[in-house]
Amino acid sequence: MSTWLRQHWQTFRLTLARLAANPLGTLLNVMVIGVALALPLGGYLLLQNLGGVSRQLTGNPQITLFLAREAGKADIAALQARLPQLAGVRAVRFIPRDQALEGLKHTENMADVIATLQSNPLPDAFVLETSGSAAELARLEPELKALPKIAHVQLDSAWVKRLETLIALGRTAVLILATLLASGLVAVTFNTIRLQILTQKDEIEVSKLIGATDAFIRRPFFHLGFIQGALGGLAALGIVYLCMRILNRSILELARLYGADFSLGFFGFSDCLSLLFFAAFLGWLGAYMSVSRHLAEIEPR
Amino acid sequence: MISFSQVRKSYRGGHEALAELSFSIEPGELGFITGRSGAGKSTLLKLIPAIERPTSGTVLVNGQNIGSMRRPAIPYLRRNLGLIFQDQKLLYDRSVFENVMLPLAFTGHAHKDAARRARAALDKVGLLAREKANPITLSGGEQQRLCIARAVVNRPGILLADEPTASLDSASAAEVMEMFRSFNQVGVTVLIATHDEALVERLNPRVLALKQGRLES
Q1: What is residue A56's predicted lDDT score, i.e. its pLDDT?
Q2: What is the pTM of this model?
């Protein structure tokens, strides 16, 4: 066991030394892998942030009920008693038409328009706070429409639903992109290892002749693939982080104009770690395929 | 011990390199394989470390049957053999010392222990002073001695050499031969293929004379 560990440690150091001995080649390989991984990773980061926004918005979906003009005080009282009993309704707020008009007067540019009106055109309204999901809202909608003296039911979840669908679409796109570029990473490693095997052809042949096991000969190439993949993953995280910092300057500005406080957040520690391991695994996989393919070709004669 | 019985080796295309070859080399013996080029000397030597497999017949090395040996077992067979190749197979991208360290890399020696052994082997062939040199800067005789150091660093029981004096002047050749004899004197089985009959006569050893893949009596 200690021999096995020592040999791995020696191989690891040797591989790092080899990579350091050829800094330009290493850098180029790492950049290729890094850029390839950064594309889907950046997409994923955007989606993760958008998903957070949409969750915030759907936290308590609202439904607005506009009453018919002829609804009287008795009807309102009946509804006020009935609405809180419906399943999925958390809170009910009544907005009398006078209050709605008053509120509108405070809105910029509206005061002048309202001053010209002869009478109040607004209906009485109820605002329902619901706890339910999009599906529950859809179930609630016809039930509310069936109530007496209701003129119009407005769900404000429609655009949230659209956003969610868009995000799901984005996820699929990122997944396709990630799959394609992950295969690209495997191919890049496959080729790097193939070249490395050719470079070390003599050493491999001699090693085989004087009693090196296949496992021993393969080991440095697995290390090389693994380390190169991990370095590429690190480069991808760096690229995405840098892009995020640059974008955030503009996003903060934009959000302030909309009176919101929003900026992109980066991945957590465990996400970063998973990505590094995934990239390292892809590198290992490329090395494994390349070694299986090319090492058998070097057979001493 | 090395034992051949009824060994035949033919290559694809029908060329028969060895035919009906039977002999055995006892532990501690010094043997020479002679014959003109193409007589099958190299093929014979390649059968022992399983670089080639016999077409028919049995090759036994230390009791192991080479013909039926599974691939994963071959490296462990080779670690007990010291091989000196006709084309030397030195690595010119590293120092003399590192060339000798190569066989110790996969036998699980700690670095200190391996370095000590490598220097001992270099000392035995008189190259300790050149350990940092690149093999390309060595003379032909020195390169051959480096091959010997690499072959013996694992202290193998059997030493196999294919034309070790082919490209050397007579003084260097005699030096190299003397080295093989001294290894043989400490109990190593040595088998050398050569076409240099004059060199063989001086030592008066066991001779396996090959002609067209058969032993001449």
Answers
A1: 64
A2: 0.75
